[in-house]
Every structure is written in C-alpha cells, then in structure tokens.
Design brief:
heterodimer; A: alpha/beta; Rossmann fold; Alpha-Beta Plaits; six-stranded mixed sheet; four-stranded antiparallel sheet; globular; B: mainly alpha; 14 helices
C-alpha cells in the first residue's frame, strides 16, 4: 500500500532569544543578543497509508501540534523530508489544502456573529465544492452529528460541543482525503466527546478518510485509532498497534493475593511485593513472560490463599508509569 | 478569477452582516469619529483665526491638506488597518494557522473578511471639506491637475495600505506589531500639517524611512504649487510613484514575513 504521508527524519527547531529570570533579567531579556534553540520535533519518521486512523499522542510540549503544522504546510521542517499526498506540504500548501481537512480544537474557524450555515456556505465557495455534493455532504453529516436544530443560529450562541461538531462537519464538506484534528475533544463534556468519537470512527470506516488526531485523551484513541504514534520530548517513542503499547513500554501488571489467615511476609521470585496488609498483599508482575499460574504455584497450597485478582494496566496507567519512570530517571541523571 | 472575486465579495458581505449585528454601536462609533476629527479641524481653524498662516499655508489650504489626508487614510486603512492590526492577535492565538490551511490567498482573505465600512465617518467628514477647500484654495485647474489629483489620491491611499501591511506583517516574525502601529500613528498625526514647518530631520524621515508625507503634504503642496522640501521639482513624480512603489515593497515584505512564520507555539 502506498503511503499518503511519509515522514523521514523530520525535525523542527525554533530559535528563541534567551530569557532571564527576575526583574533585572526582564531588562536583560529586552536587549540580549543571545539565542537558544528549542527542538520541538526531533528526527521523526513514519508512513501513514490511505484509510488509516492514527492517534498522535504525547504530553504538552512534546511536539504534536508542530508536527501537524508541518504536515499541513503551515511550518517548514528544519531537517528531513515530509511528503503529504505526494507533495511537499509547505511548498504546495494551497494545492494540498484542497485535499485535506484541518480542525484545531482551540481555534474556531467559524464566523462568530453569523448563523452557522453562513460559515458552511463560505467554505463551499472557498473550496469550490460542486453544489450537489455540498448539499449531500451537509445533509448527511448534519444528520449524523445532529446539527440541523442550530444551523440557522449565530455561532456565538452555540455551546462548545455544538461548535466543535460544526467545525468537524465543515472540515469534511469538501471530501478531504486526510483529516487532521488537533485536540478535537478538548473541553467537551462526556456526551459531546462520545458523539465526536463515534462520528470520526464512522467517517474513517465508511468513507475511508485518513485520520490523524492529536489528543491528551486516551479514550479518543481507543475509540477511533487502531494505530498509535507516541512522542515525548520531541522524539518518537512508540509507533504501532495500541494493544502492543503495554509490552513496548514495559508497564507491569498488578496482582492482589488475599489470604484467609495471615501467612506473614510472602516473598516471591516471580512478583515483587509492593505492600503488605497482612491478609491482603499487593505485588507487581514486572516481567511479561511470567504467568499467573507460575506465581500461584510459587505461593503454594499450604498458605490458605482465599482470592486472587490480576489487574491489567489500562492504557492510561501504562503511559503514566512510563512518564513517571522517565521523570525519575531524569531526576537522578545529572 | 471570477470565482475568486465571488468568494471575496461573499467575505465582504459576511463581514458587513456581522458588523450589522451591532448596528447601534456601529452608528455611534461613526458619530464619535466625525466629532473627534471635526474637533481637530476646529482646532486648526481657531489657530488660523489667530495666526492667519501656518508655514505659509492659509485656512482653505490647510483644510485641503486635512481633508485629503483624512480621505486617503480612510480609503487606504479600510482595506488594511483593522484587519492587519489584529494580525498579531491572530498569530498569538493561532487563528492564522487555521487560515493558512485554506486554499485561498491569506492576505486577500484577511483584507476582504474585514473590509472596514467603519471608515464611513472619516469619509462623510472628509468629502464636503475637501470639495469646499478645492474650490476655496488657489488651485490652478487643468486636465493635468485633475489627473494629478486623482492619481495622487490613489497613490496616497496605496501608501497608507502598504505601510500598514508592512507593519502588520511583522507580527508574523515578531508575533507583536502594536508598538510599530504606535510609531505609525505618531508620524501620521504630523501629516495634517505642511512638511516645511518641521525640522529638516523629520522632513527627511517622513520622505524616506516613514514615508507618510506622500499621504498628504507632498501631493497637496504640488496641487497648490508650493515648494516641497528635499524633493523640489520631482515632488509630483514622487507623489505619483510612492504608492505603486511601496505596494511592491509591501508585497515582497508580506511574502518574506510569511516565509519566516513560525507560529506562536502550542
């Protein structure tokens, strides 16, 4: 399958003048000629094929939005090559713009004081969408995301959830091949998030629109994106199926053993004791190759074991424990 | 081309429609503008009652200078100022990023989506004053003078639009551009007066680095056949060429600023 998006060793560095702390520092900042370079994206490479839905995940400042801005042609990469729909995005920004849709979660593209339908009409004109196609798409998407009741209402009178649904519909009216979404569910309530997620999953499945989505919300990725690209401190740390993330990041399972009578400390070679409440003991299974049967056979039959609970870490825990370990490592590394 | 023009006209109509959402405020603003510029004109009139001449210019000539400046500014600024003054907000808040993903010329979108009908107040005041002053001042009319009047007004309009575009575009490099607008308006206030009343240094600045003398002092002096400092006999040519030349420089500067755009982070 040919890739719609190809990134090879893509980096983006920003040059900033140095900032100094304190009041004196503020004056020094005003006149300084010292510059520092901030790397927002470092040597990132991936291929994304037509019809894929990819979650682009990372903490604040990891370079997610910068990567989206390079793929949409807004920013120019400092190094590496980037190809979107066979074009170099920043050199052929206008040509690419006709075939991509972009939604920025925190930046509305709707006309605040005018009825919602006016923003859609303008979009039809800017993208030169044939009228019949525009009307078909508008009817279909409005129905799926329930926009009809407020198409004639001024955008400023809409709720955040209604506005976001409208932004997403607008980004799809010109039948883009790729839809970029930068934090599309940010600030939405549970119902609105769910509606947006289900809509995006359906658009990807039924229309084959390739979706690239940055988010903090793992539920977005679990619902929409079978593939996850994870970045941290500008670098790519994981690219693959969501299900493989746990083993890739090496997050441990947790095991709870409950005894009928307190057996005293139970130290095992297959699991690490993390807390001991007498009757209930908690362990971490740090090795993936250790099975529950192996642990239980090490515990043995003579300890009056009453109950066993194994907790598979959910994706949020996997990622949180990864960042915690990284921060601890950073703290002890001078 | 026709389609693009249609899109741009739709942008204009949408902007006017959104302005009309606040009709009361709109007309009150216009009234405030007429009163505030009227007060400046009244101040000049009072001054001239006392001193008769300012730098060799009498009352009708100064009224011509004032109204020419106000009209050229209003026409030039309506296609640039409000739109590009807000450009630093668009950069800071990331709204420009969204605009850059649309298949339409960014400058054209910005200008037409904010084509400011709010300058109606300036124009309503400037036109009657201009007509009266053209009749009252000693202009030796000929076809050449009439053509020069129209040409230099268009040129002055372009100078306004071009300088504002250049200032606005710096927001794409430095994120903020408001301080440059403050400098612009500082010099702009001086353009209500004849160039020869200022020290040579300021005259030179206003003819070169901050070329706002071409908005009013130079073309009106030519029209009234008065000497123009530093430019001499070439003043008429400079007045006509300043607009097109600065427009070309503004286009180049805009392109350069777009190529340097790095966003505001986030």
């Amino acid at each position: 399958m040919t890739a719609l998006i190809e990134a090879r060793g893509v980096s983006k560095r920003f040059r900033q003048h140095r900032r100094f702390p304190g009041l004196l520092g503020a004056f020094k900042t005003l006149v300084t000629t010292e510059y520092s370079e901030v790397t927002a994206v470092a040597d990132i490479g991936f291929d994304i094929a037509a019809g894929e839905a990819v979650g682009y995940l990372g903490p604040n400042g990891a370079g997610k939005s910068t990567m989206i801005k390079m793929m949409t042609g807004i920013l120019v990469p400092s190094d590496g090559t980037l190809s979107v729909l066979g074009r170099t995005p920043h050199l052929e920004r206008m040509a690419n713009a006709r075939q991509i849709g972009v939604v920025f979660g925190q930046r509305s593209q709707l006309w605040w004081d005018l009825p919602l339908i006016d923003s859609f009409t303008l979009h039809q004109r800017i993208y030169d969408i044939p009228l019949a196609r525009y009307q078909d798409n508008l009817a279909r998407f409005s129905e799926l995301l329930d926009l009809k009741p407020f198409l004639d209402r001024a955008v400023r009178q809409l709720s955040l959830g209604q506005r976001m649904r409208a932004e997403i519909v607008m980004s799809l009216l010109h039948d883009p091949k790729i839809l970029f979404l930068d934090e599309p569910t940010i600030g939405l309530d549970v119902v609105a998030k769910d509606a947006v997620r289900r809509f995006l999953a359906e658009i990807n499945r039924e229309r084959g629109v390739t979706i690239i989505l940055t988010t903090h919300d793992l539920q977005d990725i679990e619902t929409i994106c079978p593939r996850l690209i994870m970045v941290d401190q500008a670098k790519l740390i994981f690219d693959g199926e969501l299900g493989k993330l746990r083993s890739a990041l090496g997050s441990a399972r947790r095991l709870t053993l409950e005894f009928a009578t307190d057996p005293g400390p139970v130290i095992l070679s297959t699991a690490t004791l993390t807390s001991d409440d007498g009757l209930i003991k908690h362990y971490l299974l740090e090795r993936d190759d250790v099975s529950l049967v192996q642990v239980l056979s090490e515990v043995g039959n003579d300890r009056d074991l009453k109950d066993v609970a194994l907790h598979e870490p959910n994706i949020e825990e996997v990622i949180r424990s990864f960042y915690q370990r990284r921060n601890t490592a950073a703290a002890i590394t001078p | 081309m026709r389609r693009t023009l249609g899109t741009l006209l739709l942008l204009v109509s949408m902007y006017i429609k959104s302005q009309m959402e606040y009709r009361g405020a709109f007309w009150l603003d216009r009234l405030a503008q007429i009163v505030s510029y009227g007060a400046v004109l009244l101040g000049m009139w009072i001054l001239l009652q006392k001193f008769q001449l300012l730098g060799g210019w009498n009352w009708p000539e100064l009224a011509l200078l004032f109204s020419f400046q106000l009209l050229a500014y209003a026409l030039g600024a309506s296609v640039s100022f409000t739109q590009l003054r807000n450009l630093d907000d668009l950069v800071r808040l990331g709204t420009l990023d969204a605009l850059l993903t649309k298949p339409i010329n960014t400058w054209a979108y910005l200008i037409f989506s904010g084509l400011n009908i709010g300058y109606a107040g300036h124009i309503i005041l400037a036109i009657p004053v201009l007509v009266w002053a053209l009749l009252a001042a000693q202009v030796s009319w000929s076809i050449g003078t009439a053509l020069f009047f129209v040409g230099s007004l268009l040129s002055a309009m372009s100078v306004t639009g071009a300088v504002i575009t250049m200032i606005g575009a710096t927001a794409m490099i430095w994120v903020r551009s408001n301080h440059l607008f403050a400098i612009f308006f500082g010099f702009w206030e001086l353009t209500r007066y004849p160039l020869n009343i200022f020290p040579a240094g300021i005259q030179a600045v206003m003819l070169t680095i901050v070329p706002l003398a071409y908005i009013s002092a130079v073309p009106v002096a030519v029209l009234l056949d008065k000497p123009v400092p530093l430019l001499g006999d070439f003043a008429w040519l400079a007045a006509l060429l300043a607009g097109p030349l600065l427009t070309l420089i503004a286009i180049a500067h805009w392109r350069y600023a777009m190529s340097r755009y790095q966003g505001a982070g986030g």
